[in-house]
Amino acid sequence: MPFQVLFRVILLGLIFTADIHADVVSSVTLIDNKKTSINLSDSMQVLLDHDKKLSIESISSAQYQHDFLSVATGNGKIGFTQAAAWVRFSLASRLQARQLLLLELDYPLMDRVVLYQPDGSGGYSQRIGGDELIFQAREVTYRNVVFPILLEPGETQTYYLRFTSKGALHLPLKLWDPLSFAEHASLSQISLGLYFGAFLLLIVTAIGGLYLLKANLFFWYALYLAFYGLLNLTLTGLGYQVLWPESPVWQSRAPSILVSCAVISALIFSSKLLDIEKYSHPFFNLFRFTIVLAIVGALLSLLGFVGFANQVSSLSGMVLVPVVMVAAVLAYQGGNSAARYFLVAWGVFLVFVFIAGLYYWGVLPHGLVTTYALQIGSVFEVTILAVALADRVLTLNKEKEHADRQAQHYLTMLNEKLGKMVEERTAELERSNRQLQALAIHDSLTMLLNHNAILDLMGVAVRTANRYRQPLCIAMMDIDHFKQINDEYGHQIGDEVLVKISETLNSSLRASDSAGRYGGEEFLLVLPHTSVESSVELVERMRKNIREIEFEALSGREITVSMGLMVYDGIRPIAPDSLLKSADFALYQAKQKGRDRVEWGKLQENNHLAPVSFQKIAHSKLHS
User: Fold this and answer.
1) Residues 557 and 544 in one domain
2) What is the CATH number of the domain that holds 539?
3) Which residues pair with 600 in a beta bridge?
4) Is the dihedral of CA 188, 194, 195, 199 positive or negative?
5) Coil, helix or strand for 443?
6) Does some domain include residue 33?
7) Whole-model pTM?
8) For residue 252, what pLDDT is reported?
């Protein structure tokens, strides 16, 4: 019990020094189709800004490039510091197409994270995450900070991140493809759900024991479990996600306060279970001293001295361990049978603490047991402590056999309820998984289908049209002079243009049609069961509707689009690539002929591109 609090506290605020060494040349991480996730901690470099005055312009200049250091431990641990940490890493794409990647900071307790990514014009755009923002302000509403990154094929880009926190700086960065991240997040949610479900079951069991046996030991055991469970909710980021998403202030103070509360309740429970005052009065006084130390840590945090509070709470956890260990030995020597369970519980948990320590220091590989060693160990520990608690109560109440039978019956009822609780939690996690899957196929800005999703949908539509000999229309659309809008009015206004055009597309399309953001300011439309005549009316209406959008920030400037249209008549089978290339070439022709227009493409018999020409019916409808 105290060991798990200590180890969690060490991760929060103990001053430890990571093994870092100079590395002038920035390592480049290759992105290909072979890896679904990449640990960036081994290739990233760190620079500590003790004065917190460096900007992205200065940090990316030649003056500071030699000051970055590599983190040799492989986990990005820096420790407790008042400095701002700058992290640099480079990505080189070996992919054949544009790829959406997700950058995850696998450490929830970070006050502020700023991602600086190249904006294509020699500067950097910034995106902000961390606990200083309300939870819904995150780009990806997940318990860890996650940034979507769009990587162009064949490009090499260098990214910078700036981290600040009142607690320890721990920077395990991972890069995911969206599908693998969704699977990882779903498995993580299920594992944590089972873990906290076990805690909830033990708390309910303890409350039931308190009610049936009238022993206040059950109350202190339940209180300890509740505080330790809340501490773990905080340390895993689920507390901020589920319980207090609108309170960044409480999120920053919760770790030190909950550590103190867990230490206090653990000490009171241990002293009563071991009856330490009976066996050693000096050690009982040490219990009192540690409780006072934990109370001071909680008060400091409530008063706003969060950094100092973390250190005081950490110290209370450090004092807790030797005091309770020696107390358990003394109680066992004095004849307290519950003390042997106490020592076994600590021994089991220490094994998992050792496994977790080797993992955090990079000795053991990433895996289910190493990643969740603390959770697995704590479940064993609190379970064995429950056995110790039962032994102690039964020793003091041997004559109450009837009460014992009632307790066993109550435990049986609680076990039956566990199945229902797990089913409800599993259903909730499945809903979360479906939400993550939807996030993985939609563009985060426009909420249209993303590049891969719209191409997959087009492939299905083409195969359906080939099989059933049905007409199919696809259209490539590009916003005219979009770069000028970004340059003159800024990317925020450019994003507003993208969003409003996307909304107009959605309102103009039929229920069977689909639209996706092909990339940048390009869109791909898939229009099933659409003949030449109906496609002409549909795309021309879209073009006119977009031109009629009013943008206050653009001072009356019209936004126009160019479109390349291709209609498959359903007579001969066609390949999706040929259809797409034809529409894309037609879009090129529309750009060449002055923009704000729609052009047609057609295919040769071998499905290869032929020069674009207008069909009579299309020409009459489009330019009437």
Assistant:
1) yes
2) 3.30.70.270
3) 565
4) positive
5) coil
6) yes
7) 0.55
8) 86
Residues 6+ away with beta carbon under 8 Å from 391: 337, 338, 341
Closest CA to 472 of 510, 529, 525: 529
Cα–Cα distances in angstroms (integers) from residue 151 to residues 39, 148, 227, 332, in the given order: 17, 10, 43, 62
* Structure-token pair, residue 79: 């420790």
522 and 427 housed in the same domain: no
Element (H, E) at 105: strand 99-105
- Cα separation, 137 vs 5, in Å, equals 31
Whether 603 is covered by a domain: the verdict is yes
CB 599 within 8 A of CB 563: yes
* 279 and 371 part of one domain: yes
**What's the number of domains the chain is made of?**
4
Q: Are residues 20 and 159 in the same domain?
A: yes
- What tokens appear for 143 in the block? 């318990």
Cβ-defined contacts of 300-305 (< 8 Å, 24+): 300/256, 301/253, 301/256, 301/257, 301/260, 302/253, 302/257
Confidence of residue 479 (pLDDT cuts 50, 70, 90): very high
Same domain, 111 and 189: no
- Token pair, residue 165, equals 């926190």
- Are residues 244 and 198 part of one domain? no
CB atoms within 10 A of CB 194: 16
DSSP 506-557: HHHS-TT-EEEEEETTEEEEEEET--HHHHHHHHHHHHHHHHT---GGGTT-
DSSP state of 609: B
Q: Write the CATH number for 54.
A: 2.60.40.2380
Rg value, the chain, Cα? 31
Q: Which residue type, as a one-letter code, is found at position 121? A: S
> Per-residue pLDDT tens for 163-203?
988 876 778 889 998 898 999 889 888 888 888 888 888 88
In a domain, 426, yes or no: yes
145: region left, alpha or beta (phi > 0 left; psi from -120 to 50 alpha):
beta
What is the C-alpha to C-alpha distance for residues 618 and 571, in angstroms, rounded to an integer?
Answer: 19
Q: Is the same domain home to 81 and 103?
A: yes
Q: Which residue in this structure is represented by tokens 């479990």?
A: 225
Residues 6 or more apart whose CB falls under 8 angstroms from that of 264 comprise 291, 294, 295
Residue 6 lies in a domain: no
* Beta-sheet strand order (sheet of 99-105): 37-39, 173-176, 99-105, 145-151
Q: Copy the structure tokens of residue 570.
A: 């359903």
Within a 10 A sphere around the Cβ of 305, how many other Cβ atoms?
17
If DSSP codes are grouped into helix, strand and coil, which group holds residue 115? strand
Domain interval for residue 35:
14-176
At which residue do the structure tokens 């999706």 appear? 576
Residues 251 and 263 in one domain: yes
pLDDT digits (tens, 9 = 90+) for 525-565: 999 988 777 888 888 888 899 998 888 888 878 899 999 99
Give which of 266, 271, 388, 380 is closest to 330, Cα–Cα.
Answer: 271
> What's the full length of the chain, in residues?
624
